[in-house]
Amino acid sequence: MMKNRTKNLTAALLLSMATFATAPVALAQSTQKPYTYVEQMPVFKGGEGEMLKFLGQNIQYPKDAQQAGVEGLVVLSFVVGADGSVSNVAVVKSLIESTNAEAVRVVKMTDGKWTPGRQNGKAVPVRYTLPVRFAVRDEQKTTTPDQKPEYKGGQEALFKAIGQNMVLPEEAKKEHLNARVVVKFTVEPNGSVSNIKLADTKLKKTIGPDDKLDYMDASSFNLQNKTILARLAEVAAAAVQKTSGQWQPATKNGQPVAAEVYLPVQFLGSEVERGSALPETKAAPVQDVKANLVGMNDLVPLFKLDKKPTFKEGEMAAKKFYAKNLRYPDTEAEGDVTASFLVFEDGTIGKASIGTSMGTALKEEVLRVVELSKGKWQPGYKDGKAVKTVNMLVVRFVNESSVKKEPKKERLPADVVVTKFK
C-alpha cells in the first residue's frame, strides 16, 4: 500500500518561507509568541529528503482531485514548538477542500518529528510555512481526460446561458449583497450534467460608498442573509442544471468520459463595481454579462489556462518580490485585499483595480506593489499560445498587535500574507 501511495503521488516541497512581517524578525519576542525567523530554523529529523519521503509515503491524492485533474500548491502554516511538536496548522493558500484537508492531515502526522529552531542557543517555537505540491505522475494520469469538457458554442455562449437563468433576489439587492458561488458538477459522456454540488460560497456586502466587506462565508452575517445565500446557491445550481445536454464531454484516448467541472459564478448586486466585475466566468445577470464582454471576447479565464501568468523568473522570485516590497501600512486595519489586473499576450499588465478591501491604506499598498511588478510578468498560455487573461492577487494583512481580535472566518485563499506583530 505504501508503495502504491508513493506511485500515485508526487508531493514536491518548496523551500520553507517565513511569514512576512514588518517588525525586525530576529528581535526577542514573548514566550507565548512563535518566532518567524531564527538563527537556526526548524528541520525535519533526517533532513529534507526524509521529509519528502515521509510525505510521499503518507499523502493520499484525493480521488475527486485526480478525476478533476486538480494539481497545484497547498501552502500550510504551522508552529514547530520548542519540543519539536506541531500545532496551529492552517491553510494559507488552498486548492480544493479535499487537497487542503489531506495536506493538513499529513502535516499533523509530523508532530514530534522536527528538530526545533534555535535563537541564541535556546530552542524556541517557530512559525513555519510549507508549500506542498499535488501533482499526478504522467504515467498515472489515467483518470485525467486528454480533453476537458467544453460548452457548445464556447465561453460566451456559456456566460449567456448561465446569466439568462440567474436573477439576483430582491432581498439581496436591498441588502446590497454580491455573492460568489463555486458550483461543482459532472459532465457525463453524453453531455448531460449530474452531481451538482456547491464547492464554495462567499458574500460581499456594501456598507457605504467605496467601503466594502471582503467576501466571506455566511456565518458572519445574520439569519436573513444566510437565507439569501441559500437562495443564491439554489439559483446557481438550477442555472447549471439547465445547461445539461449542451456540453461536449471530456475525452480520454478518443473516447468520451465523465469529468468534473468547477464553475465560479458571481452574482452582481444593484451597484456593479467594474473593477471587481471580472470573475473567472463572469456568470452574472445577463445584462451585466453583456456589458462586461464588450472588448473582452478574447479574454481566457484563469481556470481555462494550461499555464497561468507568473513572474519571468518563476514563482519563488514572485514570493521574494512580494516579501521585499510589501509593507504593512501605518494602520490598525487588517483583512484581505484582492487586486485584479489584465495580463496581455506580451506579458505587459494593465492597471490594477481592487475588488475587495478592508481599508484605504491597505488598498493603496497593494496597488503600489502591483505597479512595481510591471515588466516582470510572462503571460498565461492556452494550447501553447500566449493569451490575454485577468490575473488576481489576494493579499492578507494580519494585525497580531490588535487588542480586539475578530473571530476567524473562512476566507478566499491568500497568495501573500503580511503580518504586523507587537
UniProtKB/TrEMBL annotation:
Instruction: Give the subcellular location.
Output: Cell inner membrane
Classify the protein's membrane topology as the record does. Answer: Single-pass membrane protein
Query: One GO cellular component from the entry?
Result: plasma membrane protein complex
The superkingdom of the source organism is Bacteria
User: Per its UniProt record, what SUPFAM superfamilies does this chain match?
Assistant: TolA/TonB C-terminal domain (SSF74653)
Give me any GO biological process, just one. protein transport
Q: Does the keyword Cell membrane apply?
A: yes
Q: Name one GO molecular function term.
A: energy transducer activity
Keywords, sorted A to Z: Cell inner membrane, Cell membrane, Membrane, Protein transport, Signal, Transmembrane, Transmembrane helix, Transport
Which ranges carry the TonB C-terminal domain? 46-143
Give the matching Pfam families: TonB_C (PF03544)
What residue range is the signal peptide? 1-28
Family classification: Belongs to the TonB family.
This protein is called: TonB family C-terminal domain-containing protein
> Which species is this UniProt entry from?
Pontibacter akesuensis
